[in-house]
Amino acid sequence: MSKKLKKIAIYGKGGIGKSTTTSNISAALVESGYKVLQFGCDPKSDSTNTLRNGKYIPTVLDLLRQKQKVDAHEAIFEGFKGVYCVEAGGPSPGVGCAGRGIITAVELLKQQNIFEELDLDFVIFDVLGDVVCGGFAVPIREGIAEHVFTVSSSDFMSVYASNNLMKGIKKYSNSGGALFGGIIANSINSPYQKSIIDDFVDKTSTQVIEYVPRSITVTQAELSGHTTIEAAPESKQANIYRNLANKIATHTESRVPAPLETDELREWSAKWADQLLAVESGEIRGTGSNI
Amino acid sequence: MVKTLNLKTPVVESREQRLGTVISWTGKASELVKESAYSKGCGECTLCELGNPFTQGSTCSEQMVECQAGHVREAVLIQHAPIGCAAGQVAYNSLYRNGLQNRHKPVENIRVICTNLQEKDMVFGGVDKLRQSIIDAWERYHPKAIFIGTSCATAIIGDDIDSVASEFTDSLNIPVVPMHCEGFRSKHWSTGFDSTQHGILRQIVKHNPKKQEDLVNVINLWGSDVFTPMLAELNLRVNYVIDLASVDDLAQMSEAACTIGFCNTLSSYLATGLEQEFGVPEIKAPMPYGFKGTDAWLREIGRVTHREELVEKYIAKKHAEVKPKIEELKKKLKGLKGISATGSAYSHGLISVMRELDVESNGVLVFHHDPIYDSGDPRQDSLSQLVDNYGDVPSFNVSNRQQYQFYILLKKYRPDFIIIRHNGLAPLASRMGIPAVPLGDEHLAVGYDGMVHVGEIILDVIAHTKFHKDLAAHVKLPYSKWWLEQDDPYILSKNSDLIYQE
Lengths: 291, 502
Fold this sequence. Notes:
The structure holds 2 protein chains of 2 kinds. Chain A is α/β, with parallel strands linked by helices.
């Protein structure tokens, strides 16, 4: 049984498509015969919905609320082609502490040796990526995930969230924490969007793992409660996710990123704002000119 | 053996999660034995915990770390916490100093540092302060180990204490041991014992030890040295842990021939961990209280350390020496009634001792109940052994030191004395005219001599009953008339709406 478990965390700003992307990666990996557990670390608890016909599952923290003694196995549910689904869960908006919720849920599964017991190939943490407190940083700490990827569009706020995540990774990298695998560039449909992301990875010494275009196929699949891999297995989009999953499966070398300081990030975004404005007003300036 | 403890993660599993611990229950001891049977794989769980509508004072897992890790010689404990968590330092300093004195070691102050977390540390994170405190501890004391106790505050903001500890373990070349002991993590403070022991097992105990075939780990607190002379008769040497031990004493636990304790509540995690991780056998026998318990306990030590003959000689000698004394004591103690109010397993032992002395003991208050201990071995089932060897306890009460419940128990049973280890319960009894036998020295009741000690101290204490009666005549208890008239300590647990009545 001594196969090597690969532990991955995927972060992304809320609403950027991180759960969609993660679930499609999980679906593609199980389709290739791997044993995968997807661990949703977002109090909304909907990370794994599309792996289970759009249905919510009871969360680890629900169990903690109801029971004297928690058996973590009761929080594990099988989905598409046997993928294991777990949701950390968390408090209602505006109360309690969602970060502590993640700490508690992750600890519980670790203490009960769940990852080892299920003889997994991959554990994928799907984490709300604003890293607003120590709790949301748990998956990037020592001994939890090894490789971290971030889902980002070319929107400034999304890039900002990715930069923040890199700051977190850099901080923990000295003490055995996870390293940065790269950016999954999402909703990239035009050259200027690609240019923005390319420029950002260049400035932060990282890389783009895959460009994922925005696609109606994904929306259709999601609305029907499925991943694209399941709902439209023959589609072009499904193949993009398969490529992405394959790259993540074979990815070995992650690095310490070089996030931009706040002022640098501001200057960088201002430069892009000028450029986009110039392009819109008809000025021709090279990169990104063909919007 | 099946591995029951997970030492891979720095965070200990709570007692309720591992053992199914409860903190509120009432009934006969025999019923509790029956209801706890599920933990040994006998059917579904039938152990129903009573809910309490409120808690009148308690303690915290963090304090258990303070009283164990904070009492290791040549080490420093850093409380990574707001200053309130450091309030216990005064009391723990006094226990440490007295303990050192009792064991004839140089008296010194505890070395506990609090990071004094404040508002801005909660907002911006406290690990920089923790780093500074580790550096300060190192420069000031050059300790052989640094323990870090966490707090509710640091656990909520998610300070990454484990990484900081790993970083300094490497740079200082000493164990820097995180102990996750937030009060909210467990409903019972004894998880704090486990948290300390978990950290010590992970980072202090020597790997690849050289065996010392005559060394016995004794898991205890600050009690007087009763084990050295006892085990010397078996040609065994004592390694007292954790309190008052040096870091080297802790490290050599893996070299010992076996591990024993005076109370399963305290020793469960560490003893099982030493067996599971280092092959040091835990003595799986009744605890050393009363003749039956002590005989069986010694025989198991003899079997494991191959000293059967010496053990039989010692048992015969002590029986002959102690029995006449006990017969004398019985005459003087005849007709007395006593109630113990202590930690869980310890009370099982104390009731056995009282019954050996023919003291009536039909009521007890224990601070929690573990349906099983970490070894899962039936030979350590101290409650069953109490019931089987000494008969039932009709009023067996699990209450995490709730004085308002203890009041009714005392009122109903009108004991001549109470036996306690925690001082907070004595004033209540005093105000009801009942003197307390304070076993601050937890070893007083251990073994054959323990029965004599307990008998003698009961006689000493009841000699000043009049003082307590006078006190009772002049004080008023703080309870309402309604509560003073109640007969069931758990009436509020069974019907919590009652507290909202006019």
